[in-house]
Design a protein that fits this description.
By secondary structure, the protein is an alpha/beta fold. It contains 11 helices and 14 strands. It binds 5'-O-[(R)-(carboxyoxy)(hydroxy)phosphoryl]adenosine and zinc ion.
């Protein structure tokens, strides 16, 4: 259960993130609405999962247990603070792999209880949604394109607990499509950075790949057909050369870019801002680290006269600084959670839209709305 507590300024919050394959801890200070990252530690489990070509939930949960104490110690040391200096502790409570989420959330609860600190059970997606506010002044409301391994959504972010879903993927998440593309081309895991690297020397026009839902009404996405088309092209080539791989990656990335730009254009139009009002657009999540996609979305914003924001590359993928910030912003509004806060494998940002039109999907983090 959440409850209202007295608030203070500054907020200095320890954040914990364990919802997938990164064990992360960070300390963020929030003063007069301005955030400062005092430390951000990320222990990646990439090597543990690499042999399986994807995240294995049981391995992830065990690995979080093994390193979380050490990661927290590093975050506190780097921040130069003791637990007595904190004003709160925040932990991802979902959505994500339940075993991993429980490790971070229970650790947060233990610190809260032992140090008498307020606890915030953070929605991981809210962390991504707020991530550009770690370093820039991005006032509400804004249009958010959330692109990660488990999600692809367009949302109007009006404030904390005030997200309205404009569109969502009807099948795969965009990060998943990057990962699958990398897998069929033998580029390893995680696929996004590898595909982006290979695409640099490729011809984006060589393969005529589909642009699912492009030009259709609404703001929904679909990537399953594109993913399959890449696999079909790769199979048709037989033995693939370095250049084939580069060309396929570049063609794939161009198709993804076309789709993201088209769907975002729809959302900008749907927001229907009054004349003279400048809109703000944020792209966040692991895929937001892709420089080609960033610049295409920035160019789209330019044509509408909208401001473009994206988190620094270090805060695109999963990290605890965004969780600490979400916790600090909630505590600054007097919002905190009780120690019975549940771990939630599914936890949509816009609960109302998800209930009205559920889009269940088995993603990198398991089934979620
Ligand atoms: O946000 P994130 O770290 O985890 C989730 O919440 O899912 O996103 C991970 C996803 C992976 O699918 C990864 O391949 C993708 O983000 N990704 C990228 C890039 N870097 C990471 N996709 C495209 N280009 C990149 N540079
Ligand atoms: Zn994430």
């Amino acid at each position: 259960m959440s409850r209202q507590i007295p608030t203070s300024d500054p907020q200095i919050v320890l954040g914990l993130e364990t919802s997938c394959d990164e064990t992360a801890a960070a300390v963020v200070a929030l003063q007069n609405g301005r955030a400062r990252v005092l430390s951000s530690i990320i222990a990646s489990q990439i090597e543990a999962h690499a042999p399986y070509g994807g995240v294995v939930p049981e391995i992830a949960a065990r690995a979080h247990v093994e390193v979380i104490d050490h990661v927290i110690h590093q975050a506190m040391t780097q921040a130069g603070l003791g637990f007595q200096d904190l004003t709160g502790v925040a932990a991802t409570a979902g959505p994500g792999l339940i075993g991993g989420v429980m490790v971070g959330l229970l650790t947060g609860k233990a610190i809260s209880l032992a140090r008498n600190l307020p606890l915030v059970a953070v929605n991981h997606l809210e962390g991504h949604a707020l991530s550009p506010r770690l370093e820039a002044d991005v006032p509400f409301p804004y249009l958010l394109l959330l692109v990660s391994g488990g999600h692809c959504q367009l949302l109007r972010v009006g404030g904390l607990d005030a997200c309205e879903r404009l569109g969502s993927t009807i099948d795969d998440a965009v990060g998943e499509a990057f990962d699958k593309t990398a897998k069929v081309l033998g580029l390893g895991y995680p696929g996004g950075p590898a595909v982006e690297r290979a695409a640099r020397t490729g011809d984006p026009k060589r393969f005529d790949l589909p642009r699912p839902l492009k030009g259709r009404p609404g703001c929904d996405f679909s990537f399953a057909g594109l993913k399959t088309a890449v696999a079909r092209e790769a199979a048709a080539l037989g033995t693939v050369t370095e250049q084939d791989i580069a060309d396929l990656c570049a063609s794939f990335q161009a198709a993804v870019g076309d789709v993201l730009v088209d769907r975002t254009r729809q959302a900008i139009t749907a927001m229907a801002l009054p004349e003279g009002q400048t809109g703000r657009f944020v792209v966040a999540g692991g895929v937001a680290a892709n420089l080609t996609l960033r610049s295409r979305l920035e160019a789209l914003c330019d044509t509408f006269g909208w401001s473009f924001f994206a988190p620094a590359l270090a805060y695109c993928g999963d990290n605890a600084a965004m969780i600490a910030l979400a916790g600090a912003e909630r505590l600054a509004q007097g919002l905190s959670d009780d120690l019975d806060a549940p771990a939630r494998p599914r936890w949509p940002l816009d609960g109302e839209a998800a209930r009205a039109a559920p889009m269940y999907k088995t993603g990198r983090k398991g089934a979620k709305a």
